[in-house]
UniProtKB/TrEMBL annotation:
The keyword Methyltransferase does not apply. PANTHER family: PROGRAMMED CELL DEATH PROTEIN 11 PRE-RRNA PROCESSING PROTEIN RRP5, PROTEIN RRP5 HOMOLOG. It is found in: Nucleus, Nucleolus. The keyword RNA-binding does not apply. It comes from Drosophila virilis (Fruit fly). The gene is Dvir\GJ23416. It comes from the Eukaryota. One of its GO terms (cellular component) is small-subunit processome. Residues 31-52, 1069-1131 are annotated as: Disordered. This is S1 motif domain-containing protein. Keywords: Nucleus, Repeat, rRNA processing.
């Protein structure tokens, strides 16, 4: 009902004798109320009109979400507290939260100081509040849309709670809540929150009893008033002594929730009691659930009797007071308690009561008697939820007749109403796992995935009715997870504070033999337990076990070889080293495998770091006796890093792909739990050295552990040598002055030669110089490339077995490809293979050159140059010459064996090889050149003179395969081989001018060419006749004899005629002649020059002169034709100068000139050319000038970012600022400068907000940045500033961008709005249909055309629509659909004819 009063009364007694049953029912603010008109009174006694009507409640309803007013004062009880929040129970079985900022201003100030680093006065909320403490505050409603529910916050701040009070109205005896603002020597200063009121509480030892920000109940003892402020002295009260003396109080605002008053019972209501408080000054109500005892009923309380009651809340407008007679509110009843005689345990959450008896139908639900003692309630809402659709309420409630018995489950306990709320839902009753108490760490359960958890990268799951989390570290890899999927998991930890449990479905935890640490008492020294690494620091590794137990593995306990082998998520066994209170100290178990041992493994997981593997082996006798198994086995988990999968960087991902989960193969142990696939051949053919057998002069296969600019730390394969070998960079590359530092990565392969062995310090000194570890023979380089090609072939064969489509193709094959577009970042041409969209084909930008790109969707023939098996990618060429001249054969033609000076073109330059093709010949295989002569060739001297797209001269170094090196490299190393051979024949040492080089290289090369030892096959993990499968491999006797023969050789050979050869700069491979040469070479060169000069001086005959003239004429003609050919690409500075002179206004020519100079690292010259172009190009050619300025900006951004801003300002002053900024956006995108790009976008949208193209470019950039959420606000901003005639075009542009970025739903929404609002825009209809067809949304396109033909437009426009519809059905529909469209068109024409008639 709506009251007619001018204002609501502040209380008072209505006509208590009014008959409530004859009044209409109405609910206002939580209580059923009615109007009662008073009888006529004498005029002289009539009061004001505002008291003529009274609102009277005749039902003591409890508080609900609907009747709770926003910012209403209400009493609550603290249910739970953690460091940052409180859980507070409110009347009506509601729960609210209070956060740190909602306690008091003083506590917020202390918390801010704590965040700043000063925590001297800070105490968390668990110290300031106790469970069961009574508080009151202002309730704030907040909606949670994603959960479709309401959330409540309770502000306890005195400034908000007491905001309606004034200091002048405060009297002696007033009770309120205040916060301790300052602790002084003899008391505390109080934060009252009442305007103008200052309060002080004298408390002895206040600092020991109280904390700043703490809330306490206070009673005014003395007060002094003044006009501006009041000062009072208070005393602290306990919550059970908040009694207010009965007096004629006229303002309910000063009777705060939580206060205790005398309640006089006036009437028994159907759901509670009606009465009065404060000497019948105000009306009050007590709900049946708020009586003194849980099982009491309203008739148990006599009329006109007074009872002590606590104020719960006061309805804001009606000023009706709601109270509770239960003064002893506490939360301990949720737990167990023992009584004197009954010794009966109280109920827990989740417990089942078999025979719960119905007492009555009460407020909010069915009231039950549980275990003859406790009060329960089944809410009407839970009963309703069990019945879907239409149902008869009386029929449903009929089964809950008085004294009927039901099986129910306890859902929880309400501390204010002192009752258990229950349910009789069969699904909940039959659930075995309902609370966390039903679980224990180590249990195996079935979990159901609820949703992904983005914060932790895992999943939220349900185990019965219990919430759980599987963190990313504990997720089993190589599984596809979907919502609703069920997983078999192991319970790792149970967090009662967060009411959640942590699980794992990793195989390591699901293994039957796994040993879990679930309690600190079990952490006995020497015990082995499975744990997961959660954190890796420089000095320690943090390991997590079950039940939240964490252990620390200090790296000082480990040797330096294995201290860096741990990674987050690694699950393995750890041994307990000791325990210091709650801290568990760990160490690693004993090594199961030694360095170099080759073991059969099984791949269990594919990680970003590599492959996780397991090795199954027989367990120890002690473990076997404990388990009682006949054939007991154990599993050892290790890691095979990506770098250990192959010697070649570009094949590592492909090797990883060929070893899916479940693959069985062999791996060599490198250290503790690290295994290698690439080192299996080495350890199979060579005896693993230990400290006693390693000798000076041995060449060992090592790998990099740590690399800095000056020092390398290497791991050498020497057993019982737990140190890293330090190597100075000069011992790898002798050049001391280097413009570019050596770039080495961890686990990179290097060979080292032992120079010395210190027995006292047990240290090795090694060298990794190329001269120390390589013989200098190009046949070894050829064998290196051959092993690379063999590994590529093995990868292809394995992928064939895995039915990978990429394995069907080989290098040199001709394929059909379909053009997709040009990659904007690399300018590579992107294709996909005809018939297989999963395989991408790529033409490198250098191969494409200046050719015009084909149309998107066009088919072309191409030849495969290389295959990237890791990424399903083909590197191809579409040039006609390459297609005709390249064959798929992998064998070297007989006429090319040992040939040199063969002209070839460099097609591709990869990480390990360079792919070339011969210029001459009808059909030749692809030629493969090594990038490095040897793994220690860190300068890549074998390919230093090769650039992608250039021509070069090659020399073949393999007898069967098309393997070659540049001719300059071949000539340099060919001379070394000849000198070595001559020296070996003569056996006469020759001294060079500077240094004598001892030819130990030959002996080392012989030692490295040992024959492979015969390895017996494995039988169930063991060699026949051998006890363990992982015993070290023993070389064959022939190899041992060869090694001895090499070691006994004492002849020291010297190489004549190559003084200081090994120290020579490898830059000589680029065609530069070494500065230091021998005297013999000088004499030979001088003789050659003299012979050439003498030949020039000889007279030529007439016939020879004629031939020479013809030859010279032909040469000149070729030069002129080449210069005159417009398609000829300039390759020299002179040619570029000729080009820019011929076309001075062409920005393309100038930019090509700049690119040529930049490719030769001549940045300053390129900058000068750009400035020269700006001065040369005519000022009317604004577009050409803008292109040059863009190129200059790009140059400065790439090579001199400090000068970029100045160049940009200059470009803005000389060009159209808008066009310059738009070009700048593309430049920033190409350089991936995201922050600068965002600032540029903000600038242009402010400066050029009326330009439509600015908004389109901005939206496109946001999509590129991955900020798709900013596109929609950008559209709204654009529509707010652009003129209305530009709105449609702007929306269409944004729709196209959404469609290009695979957000078809948003694109359809935008275009659908346009065609609905502007149906006459035929171009929009056509664009809409084309977009849907391109997105393969055929049905949606058909629906749009159906809508279009229903429009009543002009005939010429309808003709376009019908034609579009017919073409659509002809291409994407059936003949029946096309016929239907024709019929619709005929009907339209007939209707138009009738209209004209």
């Amino acid at each position: 009902m709506v009251s007619n009063e001018k204002s609501f009364p502040r209380g008072g007694i209505a006509n208590l004798q009014a008959n409530a049953e004859n009044s209409p029912s109405n609910i206002v603010f939580g209580a059923s109320q009615r109007k009662i008109k008073k009888g006529p009174k004498p005029k002289e006694k009539q009061i004001d009109g505002e008291h003529s009507d009274q609102l009277q409640a005749f039902s003591a309803e409890t508080l609900t979400y609907d009747t709770l007013r926003d910012r209403m004062l209400v009493m609550g009880v603290v249910k739970a507290a953690d460091a940052t929040s409180l859980q507070i129970a409110l009347p009506g079985r509601m729960t609210a939260r209070a956060l740190v900022a909602d306690i008091s201003d003083a506590y917020a100030r202390v918390a801010q100081s704590y965040m700043a680093g000063d925590g001297s006065e800070y105490h968390d909320l668990t110290v300031l509040f106790s469970v069961g403490q009574i508080v009151y505050g202002r309730a704030i409603k907040t909606e949670i849309p994603e959960r479709n529910r309401m959330s409540l916050l309770l502000s306890l701040k005195p400034a908000e709670v007491n905001s309606s009070l004034h200091h002048a109205s405060i009297k002696k005896g007033f009770i309120f809540t205040g916060a301790i603002e300052e602790i002084q020597e003899h008391g505390c200063v109080i934060e009252t929150g009442i305007e103008g009121l200052q309060a002080f509480v004298p408390i002895a030892d206040a600092a020991q009893q109280h904390h700043i920000g703490q809330l306490i109940f206070l009673k005014v003892k003395q007060i002094q008033h003044s006009s501006a402020k009041s000062t009072c002295q208070c005393v602290r009260l306990d919550q059970d002594k908040l009694k207010i003396k009965s007096q004629n109080e006229t303002n309910l605002d000063y009777i705060l929730p939580g206060s205790i008053v005398k309640f006089k019972v006036i009437k028994h209501l159907k759901n509670g009691l009606e009465g009065s408080i404060m000497n019948e000054s105000f009306r009050g109500y007590v709900n049946e659930h708020h009586l003194a005892e849980a099982l009491h009923t309203p008739p148990d309380y006599e009329l006109n009797e007074e009872y002590l009651a606590r104020v719960l809340y006061v309805m804001p407008l009606t000023k009706l007071v709601y109270l509770t007679l239960n003064l002893d509110i506490n939360v301990t009843t949720e737990k167990t308690a023992m009584e004197d005689d009954e010794q009966q345990e109280l109920l827990k959450k989740g417990s089942i009561v078999e025979k719960a008896r119905v007492l009555r139908h009460g407020t909010g639900g069915i009231v039950l008697l549980l275990n003859h003692k406790h009060k329960g309630l089944i809410s009407y809402g839970s009963i309703k939820s069990n019945h879907k659709g239409n149902y008869d309420q009386d029929v449903v409630l009929a089964k809950y007749s008085s004294k009927s018995k039901h099986k129910v489950r306890v859902l929880g306990y309400d501390v204010i109403e002192s009752l258990y709320y229950c349910t009789d839902d069969a699904n909940i009753l039959n659930e075995k796992l309902y609370t966390l108490e039903d679980l224990q760490a180590g249990d195996i359960v079935q979990a159901r995935i609820v949703k992904p958890e983005s914060k932790i990268g895992g999943y939220n799951v349900k185990i019965g009715k219990v919430n759980g989390i599987i963190e990313q570290l504990h997720l089993a890899p190589n599984m596809r997870y979907e919502v609703g999927q069920r997983l078999r998991c192991r319970v790792l930890d149970i967090c009662l504070d967060r009411k959640i449990c942590y699980l794992s479905n990793r195989n390591e935890y699901l293994n039957k033999s796994v040993k879990l640490l679930t309690s600190l008492q079990s952490a006995q020294p020497g015990s082995l337990f499975t744990g997961t690494v959660v954190k890796c620091e420089s000095s320690y590794v943090l390991v997590k076990f079950c039940s939240g137990i964490k252990g620390v593995l200090h790296k000082q306990r480990l040797n330096e070889l294995i201290e860096s082998t741990f990674f987050a998520g690694q699950t393995t066994k750890f041994r307990i080293a000791g325990r210091n209170n709650d801290q568990v100290l760990l160490t690693l178990p004993e090594e199961k495998f030694q360095l170099g041992e080759i073991c059969p493994i099984e791949v269990t997981n594919a990680l970003d770091a590599g492959l996780e593997i397991k090795i199954t082996y027989a367990s120890d006798e002690q473990d076997a006796s404990m388990t009682g198994d006949e054939n007991p086995t154990e599993e050892f988990v290790g890691l095979m890093p990506v770098r250990f999968l192959s010697d070649y960087v570009d094949l590592q991902d492909a090797q990883k792909r060929t070893h899916p989960v479940g693959t069985h193969t062999e791996a060599a142990c490198i250290m503790q739990n690290i295994f290698s696939l690439r080192d299996v051949p080495y350890f199979s053919e060579n005896l693993t050295k230990d400290w006693h057998t390693v000798q000076v002069g041995d060449v060992l296969r090592a790998h990099v552990k740590h690399a800095s600019e000056q020092v390398l730390e290497l791991l050498v394969p020497v057993r019982n040598y737990n140190k890293l070998v330090k190597l100075h960079v000069k011992m790898l590359c002798p050049q001391t002055a280097r413009e570019v530092p050596i770039m080495l990565v961890p686990d990179q392969l290097l060979f080292v030669k032992v120079l010395s062995k210190e027995l006292e310090t047990k240290t090795l000194t090694v060298s990794a110089k190329l001269s120390d570890v390589w013989s200098g023979q190009l046949t070894e380089t050829a064998n290196l490339v051959e092993s690379y090609l063999n590994e590529v072939s093995q990868i292809r064969n394995k992928l064939k077995m895995l039915n990978a489509p990429i394995a069907k193709h080989s290098m040199g094959d001709k394929v059909d490809v379909i053009f997709k577009g040009i990659d904007p970042t690399t300018n590579n041409w992107v294709y996909h293979l005809d018939g297989s969209k999963n395989i991408t084909a790529l033409i490198i930008a250098s191969l494409a050159g200046t050719a015009t790109a084909p149309q998107v969707g066009s088919k072309q023939q191409a030849v495969i140059l290389w295959i990237d098996y890791a990424n399903d990618m083909l590197l191809v060429s579409n040039k006609k010459m390459d297609i005709e001249h390249i064959s798929s054969s992998q064998e070297l033609p007989q006429n090319l064996i040992a040939k040199s000076g063969m002209k070839a073109k460099v097609l591709l330059k990869l990480d390990s090889i360079v792919v070339c093709s011969l210029k001459k010949g009808a059909s030749n295989p692809l030629i493969f050149c090594p990038v490095r002569l040897h793994p220690n060739d860190v300068d890549s001297s074998a390919s230093a003179c090769l650039r992608q797209g250039d021509f070069c001269n090659l020399a073949f170094i393999h007898e069967k395969l098309p393997i070659a090196v540049p001719e300059t490299v071949w000539k340099l190393w060919k001379g070394v081989k000849r000198a070595a051979a001559v020296d070996a024949e003569e056996e006469t040492p020759v001294k060079s001018k500077k240094v004598k080089i001892e030819a130990k290289i030959a002996s080392k090369s012989n030692a490295q060419k040992l024959k492979k030892a015969e390895i017996k096959p494995l039988d169930n993990g063991k060699q026949k006749g051998v006890q363990l499968f992982f015993e070290d491999k023993i070389p064959a006797k022939a190899n041992v004899l060869k090694c001895n023969a090499v070691n006994d050789t004492a002849t020291k050979l010297r190489l004549p005629g190559i003084s200081s050869f090994w120290e020579t700069d490898l830059g000589a491979l680029n065609g530069k002649r070494p500065e230091d040469t021998s005297s013999d070479e000088d004499d030979n060169n001088a003789a050659a020059e003299a012979e050439a000069n003498s030949s020039k001086k000889k007279r030529l005959s007439a016939k020879e002169k004629a031939k020479a003239e013809v030859k010279e004429e032909q040469r000149l003609r070729e030069i002129e034709e080449r210069n005159a050919d417009p398609n000829q690409r300039p390759e020299t500075i002179d040619q570029f100068e000729r080009l820019v002179l011929a076309e001075p206004n062409s920005s393309k020519s100038w930019i090509q000139y700049m690119s040529f100079l930049l490719s030769n690292t001549e940045v300053d010259k390129a900058r000068e050319i750009a400035r020269r172009a700006i001065k040369t190009i005519a000022f009317r050619e604004t577009k050409e000038l803008r292109n040059i300025w863009t190129a200059l900006i790009n140059l400065e951004l790439s090579y001199n970012s400090s000068n970029f801003d100045d160049v940009l300002k200059e470009a803005l002053s000389h060009n159209d600022p808008l066009e310059t900024y738009l070009n700048l956006v593309e430049v920033l995108k190409s350089h991936n400068l995201r922050e600068r790009l965002v600032s540029t976008l903000n600038l242009i949208t402010r400066k050029f907000r009326t330009e439509p193209q600015v908004w389109r470019v901005t939206a496109d950039a946001y999509f590129w940045l991955g900020m798709a959420d900013r596109v929609q606000p950008t559209l709204q901003r654009a529509l707010s500033v652009l003129p209305k005639n530009q709105h449609i075009n702007c929306i269409v542009a944004f729709a196209k961008l959404y469609a290009q970025n695979d957000d078809n739903a948003m694109a359809q929404t935008l275009l659908d709005d346009i065609v609905t609002s502007y149906p006459k825009r035929i171009d929009i209809w056509v664009l809409y249909v084309d977009m849907l067809i391109k997105s393969e949304l055929i049905e949606s396109a058909r629906n749009v055309l159906e809508r279009a033909v229903l429009q009543k437009l002009q005939p010429d426009k309808m003709l376009v629509i019908y034609k579009k519809y017919l073409d659509f059905e002809m291409k994407h529909g059936t003949e029946a659909n096309a016929a239907r469209v024709k019929q619709l068109a005929e009907q339209y024409v007939q209707s138009q004819n009738k209209t004209l008639k």
